[in-house]
Specification:
Layout lengths: L1 H12 L6 H14 L3 E5 L2 H11 L6 E6 L5 H8 L3 E5 L10 H13 L3 E8 L8 H11 L2 E5 L7 E2 L2 E2 L6 E5 L13 E5 L2 H11 L21 H12 L1 H19 L12 E2 L5 E4 L6 H10 L30 H9 E4 L12 H7 L4
Helix pairs in contact: 1-8, 2-8, 3-4, 3-7
Bound molecules: pyridoxal-5'-phosphate.
Pyridoxal-5'-phosphate (PLP) binds next to helix 3 and helix 4.
């Protein structure tokens, strides 16, 4: 009802591009996470792309990214004209493995690339281990982007996502924790300089004067209609986060004896973009999925193939050492439960659940 009213207000004023709701949303997003600059944009992918363009990456610049993530993380690096170098993930949190990051930096140098930055992903809603990653980026003089497409509203060391890296990007895709009614995204930073470059890049690299261009940019604005929806969603977002955390707790209780339930590190809180478990090696995942489906629980696989094994990305460099063995193991064994609270498992008996996960 409130969203309909908000949409009606936009229909009445008719400022569909960069209307007042866009600026109001930016103000409120910045205040929410306690960051100086919040810049809305057209999607989480464009948020990454705009940030990488603003950091002025070049062809021989290595940008370190996890392989166990959504394609956009690496895609934006390629679109911005730099070289993605794939890093392994941790079995415990599914997030970037700092040891593998060091191996990837070593590998990039060996290939004659200049290590420039890291895009850490807060996978499934939990922040990456920023203290550990920051220690490495500082040692090597790298910048740090947090791809927080799945983690807006989460925290690390009692600081909210948006403040944990030099630049943080998020997505308002409908299924993300803070979702709009279409595509949208945002960039957060405490750097006024980067913020002003990103604002220019978002409108084709325009300078202060219309039709004068200082950079090659993109059409990367957030629609006013999406901003109006997001303002209403943001007003109740703390409750949304609480609901998701309650559902995750209920899943923990139902599933912890059957599978490896997701672990949140002591410094962090998660917003549970996905509740993703690790199945025991001997279980056949598709059988488990079928069993759960028969009980009315639709599970999904995020992600079935890590990026370094995809046709579009397999020729890019990757960490040496143990390689990306954990990413490959995770993609074979993870399973995500629905985060829509009408689908929780509490209505199922333990016997039903035991049956779903029995060894075939
Ligand atoms: C969803 C997502 C993106 C891209 O966001 P869009 O708004 O869909 O462009 C980027 N990175 C990660 C980790 C995501 O989950």
């Amino acid at each position: 009802m409130l969203i309909r009213q908000a949409l009606n207000r936009v229909l009445e004023h008719g400022q569909f591009i960069m209307g007042p709701e866009v600026y109001e949303l930016e103000k409120q997003l910045g205040a929410y996470c306690g960051v100086k600059q919040a810049i809305s944009c057209s999607s989480g992918t464009d948020a990454l792309w705009l940030s990488l363009m603003a950091l002025d990456v070049k062809k021989d610049h290595a940008v370190f990214v996890p392989s166990f993530t959504f394609a956009a993380t690496a895609e934006a690096v390629v679109l911005a004209g730099a070289m993605p170098v794939f890093v392994d993930s941790l079995e415990t949190t599914y997030n970037l493995d700092p040891v593998s990051l060091e191996q990837a930096i070593f590998e990039a140098k060996k290939l004659g690339l200049a290590p420039k930055g890291v895009v850490a992903v807060d996978l499934f809603g939990q922040p990456a281990d920023y203290d550990a990653i920051r220690a490495i980026t500082q040692q090597h003089g790298l910048w740090l982007i947090a791809d927080a497409a799945q983690s807006f509203g989460a925290s690390y060391n009692a600081q909210l996502v948006g403040t944990l890296a030099d630049v943080t990007t998020t997505s308002f895709f409908p299924t993300k924790p803070l979702g709009g009614y279409g595509d949208g995204g945002a960039v957060f930073t405490n750097s006024d300089r980067l913020a002003s470059t990103i604002k220019s890049l978002r409108v084709h690299g325009q300078s202060d004067k219309p039709y004068e261009y200082q950079y090659v940019g993109i059409n990367g604005r957030l629609d006013t209609i999406q901003a109006a929806v997001l303002l209403e969603k943001l007003a109740v977002f703390s409750e949304t986060v609480q609901t998701r955390q309650n559902l995750a707790k209920a899943y923990d209780e139902s599933l912890s004896t059957l599978v490896k339930t997701p672990k949140v590190i002591s410094q962090a809180t998660s917003v549970w973009a996905q509740y993703t478990v690790l199945l025991p090696e001997e279980l056949d995942r598709s059988t488990v999925m079928d069993n759960l489906k028969n009980l009315g629980v639709t599970t999904r696989i995020y992600y079935p193939t890590p990026l370094h094994l995809q046709a579009a990305y397999r020729h890019f460099p990757r960490a040496t050492g143990a390689g990306l063995a954990t990413c490959e193991m995770l993609s074979n064994r993870v399973l995500s439960f629905p985060m829509n609270s009408s689908h929780d498992l509490t209505q199922l008996t333990q016997r039903d659940l035991d049956h779903c996960f029995s060894v075939i």
